[in-house]
Amino acid sequence: MASYDKPEVVERDVKDKEHEEDDKPIVVERDVKDKEHKEDDKPEVAERDVKDKEHKEDDKEEGKGGFLEKVKDFIHDIGEKIEGAIGFGKPTADVTGLHVNSINLEKAEFVIEILIKNPNPVPIPLIDINYLIESDGRKLISGLIPDAGTLKAHGEETVKIPVTLIYDDIKNTYADIKPGSIIPYRIKVDLLVDVPVFGRITLPLEKTGEIPIPYKPDIDIEKIKFDRFSFEETVAVLHLKLENKNDFDLGLNDLDYEVWLCDESIGSVDLQKSANLVKNGITYIDIPITFRPKDFGSALWDMIRGKGTGYSMKGNINVDTPFGAMKLPITKEGGTTRIKKNKEDGGDDDDDDDEE
After folding, report:
1. What is the mean pLDDT of residues 320-328?
2. φ, ψ dihedrals at 217, nearest 5°
């Protein structure tokens, strides 16, 4: 019986040993998983370290920027204190006017006046003056005036910039700008000055307004009416027709021209009273004249018979405009008019029959 029981013990031992072998992989697997968890934890720590480092770098940059701002503020404060203590300051400037010296059919000459004030205790140089005149964003003229002078200490100076606009240049460049029109302008001026403490600074200025592109009036002798007729001396009245083709009125205040009848000069004529030539309109004026018909030769008989009489006119008219005084030329070549006598001189005084 004793020998029969031994195999059972051996079998149990073998089974127990198998169970022990089965248990070992469980422990190993748990150790592997624990090791994997530890490996997964490492990137989180590393990532946190990187972020902390980035925050430190940002703080450093912010600290650096803040430092620069503090330095700038400090320098600005020092500059203001020096300015207050020594009395240095920025100059001021303003466009005080634009004065037309002359204007005619060819060009306009005017002067831009700029008042500059220097608050500093020392003279300062006006290095450059840059100017530009434009119309609706289109350049008309520009220029540079170098070494423009010196501004005296604690004083003010009026700087004058002469400008000439050539109308042909403008009309050739911009076809839509017509004679007789008014165009807007904008003047831009940059003054470059050298100021102690501040260094070189630019003072920008602007002014707007309007300038004309003038057009000469058309002139005709509608008729010549005799007040007193004789061969030795005849007193007559020229009925003049003037057409103003400009977009602005012309205040006629003087005439300076000569008249020819039948190729014979009857001399210059005088304007007895001023007249207003309305814009884009026709105005009639009467001008008295005196001449000697016997000097006209055979053409005298054509005049007496009321036939067409040739005439020419050449000279200038002086007018006032919203832009200043102008001297405009007037010419008329190869015109024809009729001479009308009063009834007492044997003529018909009906004006309606004489106008053409």
Report:
1. 88
2. -75, 155
